[in-house]
Amino acid sequence: MTVEDPLLTCYCLEHCPDNHVNNTCTTHGKCFTEIINDPIRGVYHTSGCFGPKEKSVMLCKKLRPHIQRSIECCQTHLCNKDLHPTLPPTTAFPETTMMSTSILKDSKYQIALLVSITGFAVFVCIAFTLLYLRCKRKEAKRKYSAIMQLQDASYIAPGENLRDLLAANQSSGSGSGLPLLVQRTIARHIHLVKQVGKGRYGEVWKGCWRGEAVAVKIFVTTDEASWRRETEIYQTVLMRHDNILGFIAADIKGTGSWTQLWLISEYHELGSLHDYLKAYTCNKGIMLQLAYSAACGISHLHAEIYGTQGKPAIAHRDIKSRNILVKQNLTCVIADFGLSVRFVSDRKEVDIPVNTRQGTKRYMSPEVLDDTLKQETFTAFKQADMYSFGLVLWEIASRCNSLASVDEYQVPFQNIVASDPSFEEMRKVVCVEKLRPTLPNQWTCEDCLMTMSQTIAECWNSNPERRLTSLRVKKTLSRLIDGTFKQDNCA
Fold this sequence. Notes:
The chain has helices at 52-60, 94-152, 162-171, 180-188, 224-234, 273-279, 284-302, 366-369, 378-398, 423-432, 447-459, 470-482; strands at residues 8-11, 14-15, 24-27, 30-38, 42-50, 68-74, 191-198, 202-209, 212-219, 247-254, 259-266, 314-315, 324-326, 332-334, 341-344, 349-351. By secondary structure, the protein is of the alpha+beta class.
């Protein structure tokens, strides 16, 4: 029979049995306290009881290489309270030390290897990027040089003039505008001679290209929308017409400090219809020629030409004597399309430009002034044009010298409103008081002027639906010229 060791009471921490009381346990073996240095958890203490059978197992258990630990035992009541084991020095565990050193060396090697690989990869990426950018710059330089050579060399033959270029382009069926490269080439070699006009949009200059006179309309940068719209309209397919100002080129010129928007067109020495009527009177033949040619231009503008290379219907929206130019043969051309609208027949929509600029208030129709114009209907824009054209016809007829006396030239409503009338002022005169320029009674004494008077009155009728169309006015003036109204003396 074996005599058991006395029953001891020990402190326990983390090694307490299920029947422990107030962190104490009982055993016939020994009490112990242990200190452990774990790389994950750090340094911590444990205590408890173990029996005689566990004693040799606990003390002889092989240490894990990556953990340091030390155990002290005692065999009296609560004796492990005063036990304070210490961790052995690192050298006491050569296997652990070697393993830690090996792990540390491996870790440093892996980090160094990773840094080297990453650095090499970054270097390769940078090298390829620089090489790619260098190739792209060379390619861009090559293309730019080729373009400049085309522009500066033989793209426009030395002997070619503007008439040849425009005629060749028109016969190709590509529309009204020259190829963009040709336009830029022309614009780069224009010499500005003198300023011939100025307006809200900018300035008009007489220029010279290869000895030929051209007009250069220079827009201010704040009116870029008008420049873009006018360029678009001029380059519309089948836009070119004897009574539409001949468009040549458009270009943006400038450097980092300044920018100019150029629109280059044919130059007409006589200037605008306003300037011509102010300087000269005209006989009935010239009056009809001016009126008829202007009507032909507006009629071509308003007409839609069907076909794969067709022309959309266009409304001008700013018809006035200053926007009509006079050629040397005393026929007119329509100019200034910065506010024009197009009718997109496929979608039955009106293409209205995004433009803050307004038309000329003096020539605005009643429905524009009182804001009743139906913008979704393209016909409404053409009817507004015809009201304005009625005022222009009145200006032309007023300078006809077939009567005994001719009044000084006046713009419409000159004796009624200020030189720069307000919108509200014009609305009151035109819409409320329904006033129009005076049609002299003596016009009724001449069959030709009487017909002009009737045509003018029908153009500026307050009811848009009752106004004449541009085609009707064109036919009426054509008959006057041909003398089919029993007024041979009008021709």
